[in-house]
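Hi everyone, sorry if this is the wrong subforum. Our group has a chain we'd like a structural model of before ordering constructs, and none of us has done structure prediction before. Sequence below.
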Amino acid sequence: MNYFVIGDVHGCYYTFVTMLTKYWDKENEILIQLGDLIDRGNYSPKMVQFARQLRDEFPTQVYFLKGNHEFEMIGHFTNQPNHNWLRQCGEETLRQYEAEERDCMSDVNWMKQLPLCYENAHLFVSHAGISAQTKNPFDEEDSCGVLWNRSPLKNIQKLQIIGHTPCDEPKYDVHSHSWNIDTGAAYSGYLTGIKIQPNGEVIEFVREKTDNRDRG
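Answer:
Right subforum, don't worry. Here is the predicted structure as tokens:
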């Protein structure tokens, strides 16, 4: 099967649903989302609820990866309070959970088990990528690890697909053979998806302008 990788969603529930409706070929594509389902947009609880339902419905075909915002929310409920998360966007996310009357801890426990990457022989997908600056890219607290990295990526002889750092448009780095597909869905941008063959060849990019309900 081919792969359909989608960038940072950040609570943009309606945008994400529209993208799947328009572009996901369920019969022929494995769906991978890069993490950061929550915060900034208007519908973090709805987004997590939908992700969980999708994962339950397609357990071998749908993968949601952990992003730094999931890590931050987990930290808040594991070692309260996480002032950094609350100050940046956590307070609003908690208000959304209260308004939806949705159980935060159930979602936090689901987030804890999210994988940090998805890979095959030709493709490596993670939230922020494998950096040359760290010896342990899977240390979730490492500033150069796959949840947080903003330094140049290492060429790992596979195509890397990442998000984490918003760009105006998908950005290719020839040295690391990587694409950053975070196009700022929660910042008046758009959501990007990339379709890839199992051998790492890019088929096409798709984009969905952010629904006004998600950031109004």
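For your construct planning: The chain has a mean pLDDT of 97. Residues 83-100 form the longest helix (18 residues).
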